[in-house]
């Protein structure tokens, strides 16, 4: 068994990546084919033809209407993954069907359920409503990470690294110096880490996007919905300005909703989806371009560091030593929750009868 | 250990404060139990084992017995 947390929703793509072309992405080690039917609905199924395992995302495989035709010998599948015709004979083998994946398209993401179909509950997909909300302007992207996903979880739950790894972009001394409050909601599988800086330097990322010139109050409120969705509610405001009203209105605050979807690709690689939604200067294209380019630079600083870290720890013996201090409180909580979810997910799969359905048939 | 106050946090929620001006962490369980730690690993061992698991002091007493 792998270390993937099964029986969970994962972001497989941005909605804009999936259209009337065959699109492939590996999630938790499973190669998945994504495409839109003529009605516009996203459908997801195994990217391996049941006949000889040809990747259906590979040319000359193609979409014809609401069917996919394998480019190798012509097995043809409907949008539900069921094979509807095979070459040279009328009878289609009863077991000729691709594993299909439950899909939810929401908040600009395409989510797929990795695990037992019958356990998929659409209500459990965590929300990031800012990403396609008319009151926000959003930039986003996806960077391939050659590192196990746990390293990105660790990275995002401890933002003290901004001071060192992202100095001159989003990091200032106050981030690493300011104590955090951490909260775990066991039942919901959510970790919250809050860092409230009362009087901090304004790093270039915020100075250039908001136009604030002096020092700022800076709030970083993290909400990690294990395993896949990470939200950073970021608020900056000039020092001395009014705090948010009790009803949530906040005329003096500049808000950025920083969202990551952390999707394991393989045991040692991850899809690093990122997005930043802001509620100020909505139509200022220069700000949009700046936020996009600067945030992507920051994401790539993490990618470079984590790629190196993956190489280093892959070369270590199992059970290597780490040392944790106060800043790691949130990351340690996330690890605990992921471990529990992985165990629960594996139990649910072991208890299901549908395991092994893809066993290879004889010739 | 402090008295249990079920109104402190919603059920199933644990909170960890960084003690102001100190390097210590204060773990608070939704059942109202609190304890300070110097190491976040020890803290989560205690907090997430709570309330089913015995207190560290109780565990040590049992180990000695
Ligand atoms: S491998 Fe797809 S039809 Fe043969
Ligand atoms: Fe970072
Ligand atoms: Zn308790």
From TrEMBL, chain A:
Gene3D superfamilies, sorted: Naphthalene 1,2-dioxygenase Alpha Subunit, Chain A, domain 1, Rieske [2Fe-2S] iron-sulphur domain
Alphabetized InterPro entries for the sequence: Cholesterol_7-desaturase (IPR050584), Rieske_2Fe-2S (IPR017941), Rieske_2Fe-2S_sf (IPR036922), VanA_C_cat (IPR044043)
GO MF term list: 2 iron, 2 sulfur cluster binding; metal ion binding; monooxygenase activity; oxidoreductase activity, acting on paired donors, with incorporation or reduction of molecular oxygen
Name of this protein: Vanillate monooxygenase
Sequence intervals crossing the membrane: none
A Pfam family: VanA_C
Keyword Iron-sulfur appears in the UniProt entry: yes
Keywords recorded for this protein, A-Z: 2Fe-2S, Iron, Iron-sulfur, Metal-binding, Monooxygenase, Oxidoreductase
Sequence ranges assigned to domain Rieske in this UniProt record: 9-112
TrEMBL record, chain B:
Domain of life: Bacteria
Name this polypeptide is given: Uncharacterized protein
Taxonomic source organism: Streptomyces sulfonofaciens
Upper classification of the organism: Bacteria, Bacillati, Actinomycetota, Actinomycetes, Kitasatosporales
